[in-house]
Hints:
Helix content of chain A: 40-55%
Order of helices and strands of chain B: HEEHEEEH
Distance between the termini of chain B: 11 Å
Oligomer: heterodimer
Order of helices and strands of chain A: HHHHHHHHHEEHEEEH
Amino acid sequence: MTEDIRGLTAALAADPASLVFLRLGEALRRRGQLDAAQKVALAGLNRYPHLPDAHDLYARVLADRRDFASAFDEWDMALRLDPNHLGSLKGIGFLYFQAGDAEHAREHLRAAAAIVPDDEGILSALALVEGGRLSPAQSEPEVSAAVSTVPPTPSAAPVFSFASADEGVDEQGPFAGVENALNMLLLVDGSGLRLGGEFRSIDGADISEEISACGAGAAREAARAARILGLGEWKSVSVETGEWNFSLVQPTPDTCLIAARPADLPVGQVGFLAERAAKAARQWLELVR
Amino acid sequence: MSVDYVAVVDALTRVRGVHGAMVVAGQDGVVVAESLMEGVKGRALAALAGSLAKRVEGITRAAAGQAPHFIHLEGEDGALLVAAGAGDLLLVILAGREVPIGLARLETLRAAERLA
């Protein structure tokens, strides 16, 4: 499929915040216009630093430039934001293969195949790797082609953002301006006292006080572990249960913020939500203290 | 088929930036297997990881009725990863700042599956 680069460029110019940069960058990359593709990818990353597809696009460009170390870092970052990011699993699989590490290549391609079992590109790459018939140098173009058959999908729009002031958010609370802040976002002090926010269980019960106490305890434990293990000051605790993702951060040294969302929001993005909420909470704490 | 715990932790320490890996019995912090760089205090690592997992479980049980299967404590100078294995076994990883965290997470979860 050939993308209309002129049309995509016009669309991006008309709406610079659009995710069309993903399609434009990929189209440029496929045509071998790597300088232009890199420029588009970096501009997109600048605007959407927490969008896994943006890191994936930039990694593809870097891989085409044979800057494999940087490509690995970008795909690794995308996986950090979305542990099941298909393009990144495939990309890292390709890099391992290219480096002659068939075992790790196979593991990543299998992880990708588990997400999309009928993707012919992944299956053929996996067959090449598992076959072990060809040396990396001989078969790199085949594996590279197989793993790059799926372009970034511009569907992963940011799921949260700062709301405008007239969207009905309580501007007096600690999470003023943070969209979707009405539930499962809690600010507590070091002794477990709830300072703001609310937490309801999946059956609707208000469990804010219980979570406050547990959150303060977990924050103390995180601080203790980080100090004793030489990890420096703790920045965050990310928690996955399979169906839910949680993030704990500390807006100030004596407070803790707990955020939770269903697992369809990748854990890295729950962390991003928590960081945004922590920023708002810091401003609120400065005002009220 | 019995699990070769030593092989599991040895494999994890081959990930760049990983300073140590352990299999720990979560309830009492007993070390089942370990592969640690010199200077890493195994008993402290086991106890602190178990304690953090217990605290975090209080949150997830109350909110979602589920136990955590993966925990990532990020510090300024490194990370502590804890994954749930079979029963009350925990797989514990201590890593430096240079660890590729997405890869370490994948490898840790894969290894935790082997513990099951």
